[in-house]
Write a structure and sequence with these properties.
147 residues; TATA-Binding Protein; globular; DUF302
């Protein structure tokens, strides 16, 4: 009985895994990230950072496939979300990852917006969340070469 209780408590304490959207992209990591950056800028969002994880690993003497992270946001979308629950600031600005998988395929990945803010106290009908989800999908389309 004690083992069942311990297992139940362990499962309850384990955070749910977020749904990550991924798609294949045409071109190198740099080419795909450049398209992503352009799409984000053209949408009027601010780019806060472009982080080259692969270069960071190399600088530390470690191997990692090419991968870059783009951190960006738009106060017109993010502020209403934070007005609903200030802790949304832990998840904003948004980010997308472009990486080379083990087979040499370039991929674009991002967390589904519904999952990103799932544990916060806000309504599911908040318009800004839908607009963020649409933007992330559009950005991924543009970056992957399918948009």
């Amino acid at each position: 009985m004690r083992h069942i209780l311990i297992a139940t408590l362990a499962l309850a304490a384990t955070p749910a895994l977020s749904d990550i959207e991924t798609r294949n992209a045409e071109g190198s990591v740099v080419e795909v990230m450049d398209r992503l950056e352009t799409a984000v800028e053209e949408a009027g969002a601010t780019i806060f950072a472009r982080i080259d994880h692969g270069a960071g690993a190399s600088d530390a003497g470690l191997d990692l496939p090419e991968s870059e992270l783009l951190i960006f946001g738009n106060p017109k979308l993010g502020t209403p979300v934070m007005q609903e629950d200030i802790e949304a600031g832990l998840f904003l600005p948004l980010k997308m990852l472009v990486y080379s998988d083990g087979d040499g395929q370039t991929r674009v990945a991002y967390e589904e917006i519904g999952d990103t803010f799932d544990d916060l106290d806000m309504g599911d009908d908040l318009e800004a969340l839908g607009r963020m989800e649409d933007a992330m999908r559009n950005f991924a389309d543009a970056a992957s070469g399918s948009g």
